[in-house]
Amino acid sequence: MKFVDKLIQNPVYIESLKEIEAAERERVFCCHGIAHFMDVARIAYIYNLEQELGLEKEMIYLAALLHDIGRAEEYNTGVPHEQASKKLAVFILSELDYPREKFDLIIRAIENYRNREIKELYSDDPSEQLNVLINMADKQSRNCFFCSAYEMCNWSEDKKNKFIIQ
Prior knowledge:
- It is a single chain.
- By secondary structure, the chain is mostly helical.
- Helices cover 58% and strands 0% of the residues.
- The protein has eight helices and no strands.
- Helix 6 runs antiparallel to helix 7 (100-112).
- The protein is globular and about 45 Å long.
- The chain starts with a helix and ends in a 26-residue tail after the last helix.
């Protein structure tokens, strides 16, 4: 996965990860570092395989590794992180010289992954499928059922992940 390898060596990506880590150092709730990004990538790829969607592994990993990269900007300025993540992802994917047709699918998935009115996984639109995969994997990556901050969390009960598999 040559573009994933280039991503994790990209100075802007690395600096963004460090900024998120610093901003979340005292955070008791779910954090948004590389472990979370990798969990989302792996879970999304598993869903892709199980549902036989045929999306490219590298594209799924890139979307997952970039979906929350704007968290530090959200903490610093209040800009919603999906907007900040989209802006950073556009810059970083451009630097990586990632193919434009796939580039746009990733950007749309990052921009829309928090959309609670997700259509469905079985759409014929790869952009929609990637969006749904990242949304599902992001939620499944959270171990709410074993979280020490469960009672303090502002997620509603129906939003919390209470099971290993949904």
